[in-house]
Amino acid sequence: MKRILTPVLLIVMTAFIAGCGPGLPEGLTGEIAFISPVDNDGAHDIFVLKLPSKDTVRITNTSGNNVENVWIDWSTEDMIAYASNREAARDYEVYIYDFVERKETRLTNNDYFDGYPTFSPNGRFVAFSSERPTKDPDDRPQREIYFIDLATGSEERLTKTPESELDLSWSPDGTRIAFAKSVSGFYQIFVYYIESKETKQLTDVQFSNSRFPKWTPDAQRIIFSSNRGDTENAGDKRRNSIYVMNAEDGSDVKTILIDNVNSYNSPHISPDGKWLTYSEVDTDWPKGENIMLRAFEGEDTKAYTLVKNKFFNRNGPWKQPTGI
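and the corresponding structure tokens:
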């Protein structure tokens, strides 16, 4: 493993944050990472939105058509992990940005895919999906789950399956990693138990995709995006909705957000469990992808606009409490 440290200049921006819609809820504070191609140079960079001011800080500063800095996770040690294909279009590598030292570390450095990083709750380990080559020349590489010990640099492989594991999310209690993988051509959500090394399937809705699992702060439930509720459209035109289910067995599935116009993606819950952020796309006419906020549960269904412009902005995680 080769680590490359790069100083990063933080720039505060406000120009592309729209002020439309209702004002933010009283007392709302926090920081939210998100991805935006706001420079319109073909690259998707990472920003941090500060609440309630909506001031925005740039974290990455890349350029080039189809360059992506994606799949963000925020640790309790005030670092974010993400993947970037800035060096080669198909070769994503995992990076870490340290907010204290204001430095970027390249965590993986090879010729194959590394992505979907997620921190352990104590911030010491990073799990990620890696498409390592196999010894069998006829065996097509799959994206398996690995993790790196940040203190020692040692790596360990966790899964070995005929399908690719994506959308990794480490549970707040440290015992499990949620992920998505294809089953009969459609993505379903699974949980990997770290101690027993067993895997349990939580969703099983035929002909529908379920992806982007994220844990509630108490590690009892999982929120996720799924197109199971769209019975009118087909293929990529199917709208995603947001659901929540029990993390133990996938039971008690409840619909959080669904309608017949918008597609809702990338849900994240605030550290106090009160607020849900998500991406909203109008599938009838591409008008960009906005980042929205609403109460996670309760009778208040008002939606608040956090980021809105002509670009497709992707929602990311909230800053986690430090020192856990």
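(Above: one complete record from the training split.) The first strand starts at residue 5 and ends at 7.
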